[in-house]
Amino acid sequence: MRWIALMLVLIAAASCSGSPPAPTAIPAPPTDAPLPFDAPQPTLAFPGNLPTTTYTDAVNGFAFDYPTGWTLTPPADASTPSYSIILTANALRIEIAVLPIETNNQNSSDGTDASILREEWRTFPDGKTALYMERKDAAGTTSYALHTRVGGRPISVTLTGDPAFLDPLVGSLRAI
After folding, report:
1. In this structure, are residues 138 and 152 in contact, taking their beta carbons and an 8 Å threshold?
2. What CA–CA distances, in Å, run from 100 to 15, 30, 69, 70, 79?
3. Where are the alpha helices (DSSP H) in the chain?
4. How far is residue 160 CA from its own chain's centroid?
5. Number of folded domains in the chain?
6. What pLDDT is recorded for position 135?
7. Which range of residues forms the domain containing residue 106?
8. Closest CA to 95 of 150, 158, 46
9. How many Cβ atoms sit within 10 Å of the Cβ of residue 140?
10. For labeling, which of 76, 143, 159, 172 is most exposed (least CB within 10 Å)?
11. Residue 129 belongs to a domain with what CATH number?
12. Half-sphere exposure of 152 (CA within 13 A, CB side)
C-alpha cells in the first residue's frame, strides 16, 4: 500500500514541474546477453570432465573434441559431398553428418517418421548458433540433434543416449 502511495506522490510531483522530463537513453543490452528466443547457454564440459581427443578433418576444414577412449569411425572418403563420422561409447552413439555446402540443414523436418518433442535455438559462447531438436521415432527411441554450420559447412550432430554429451561436442566444433 505504501508503494502505491509513493508512486502517486512521484507522479503528482512530476506533473507539477511544468516541463516534461528530459528523455533518457535506454541502455543497450550487453552483447553477451542471450536473445529472447535463445535457450540457456549450453554446457561445454563433458560429464565428469573427461579428458578429450581432437578429431581433425583437414579436407573440409573443421575439428571437434570427444572423450578419449570412445570409438571413432571416420568416413571412408571425406572428399565426397556428404559423409558421416560415428562416435560410440557403451549405449551412446553420435553421428556427425557433414552435408553438402548448399544444404540448409536448419529445419525441423528431415523426412523421417519422428515426432518432434522439443525444438529451440541455442547460441554457443563462440557465437555459433544451432537448432536443437529432441525427437522420438516410431519405435519410441529418443534422439537429440543440433544442426549448425562450421566454416559455412552444414553439420548435423545426432545423439542417442545421454544428451549431456551433445552440447560439449557441438560446442567444440570449430573451423581450422
Report:
1. no
2. 64, 35, 30, 27, 11
3. 2-16, 166-172
4. 17
5. 1
6. 94
7. 48-175
8. 158
9. 6
10. 76
11. 3.40.1000.10
12. 4
Q: What cell numbers appear for 8 in the block?
A: 502517486
Q: Return mean pLDDT, the chain.
A: 78
Nearest residue to 148 via CA among 133, 165, 163, 164: 133
- Summarize the confidence of residues 150-169 as an average pLDDT: 93
Phi and psi torsions of 33, nearest 5°:
-75, 135
**Chain centroid, CA 69 distance in Å:** 25
Q: What stretches of 1-141 show up as alpha helix (H) in DSSP?
A: 2-16
Separation CA 42–CA 121 (nearest Å): 11
Residue with cell 549450453: 42
Inside any domain, residue 10:
no
Quick one: cell of 62?
A: 573443421
Contact (Cβ atoms closer than 8 angstroms) between residue 104 and residue 155: no
Residues 52-106 pLDDT 10s: 999 999 888 999 999 999 999 999 888 888 999 999 999 899 999 999 876 554 4
What residues contact residue 41 under an 8 Å CB cut-off, 6+ apart? 34, 123, 124, 125
pLDDT score of 152: 87
**Does residue 4 belong to any structural domain of this protein?**
no
What three-state secondary structure class fits 170?
A: helix
Cell of 47: 560429464
Place of cell 514541474: 17
